[in-house]
Specification:
- By secondary structure, the chain is of the alpha/beta class.
- It is built from nine helices and twelve strands.
- It has helices at 15-24, 46-55, 77-98, 130-145, 165-173, 192-203, 223-234, 263-269, 276-286; strands at 5-10, 31-36, 60-63, 101-107, 149-154, 157-158, 178-182, 186-187, 190-191, 211-214, 221-222, 239-243.
- The strands form four sheets. The protein has a six-stranded parallel sheet, with helices on both faces.
- The longest helix has 22 residues, at 77-98.
- The N and C termini lie far apart (48 Å).
- The mean pLDDT is 95.
Length: 293
Amino acid sequence: MIKKERVLVLGAGGQLGQCLKKASERYKEYFSFDFLSSKELDITNFSAVEEYFSSCRVHFCINASAYTAVDLAEENEEKAYAVNAYGVKNLATECRKQRAALFQISTDYVFDGDTSIPYGEDDFTAPLGVYGRSKCAGEEYALGGNPKTIVIRTSWLYSEFGKNFVKTMLRLFDTKKELSVVSDQFGQPTNANDLAEAIFKMMGAKIHKYGIFHYSNTPETTWFDFAQKILYLSGRSVRLSPIATEAYPTPAKRPKRSTLALDKIEREYGVEIKRWERSLEECVRSLGINIRE
């Protein structure tokens, strides 16, 4: 009998963590899974991380835990760095000891958005706020602390779980008659279920190639056009108005165009890149809404 490799998934209570747990049902023949929430294992506590790793053999560690409150991070820099940077350093240290592969989930917010073309994995990072800077530091700790690290940058995550743009829009469509949505920020909406599948496909590869990879759905769009598609699929009747970023000021500055180049993950791992419109339909259906065809 072949012994299954152990997969530790951290941040199990979050959006991506729940998508990973859902997807893991299809991989239990090959892997054994431990799903731990931030309450069950605080990655900022090195002693707790060390104790867990010393208690069992870990082959893969997927870090889906993160401080993702982009605006609140401006006032809570210490907390953001504790989770997004120093906690990652703790994981990288323990993964290196066990020669475990670390999957560190990062973000398009490591870029400043001052570009007209998609960002490649090797492009210069220049985060605009605390959240982006803390995630960028986490990338450095992950890659520098463990040679078997895969950093996956993604963008505009949503799913049927947790709080996200899609669920917020659907809720507002039921309570508002008019909404204004930013129309001059470009990026790629990503169904977290698709990201979970991509991670497991990479994990199950015969040969692992480490470093930075980008994954999202495609093509690029704006928050306004994304909202319009959500509105159409839901069949609601709300008036949407496009507004400029300057008309909707936020504590943290957002990148204007953070589109990610996706060819590397396709080439190296054969990961399918789905269109965001198709993945959005799947998400809206999963929320129990009869979508408009």
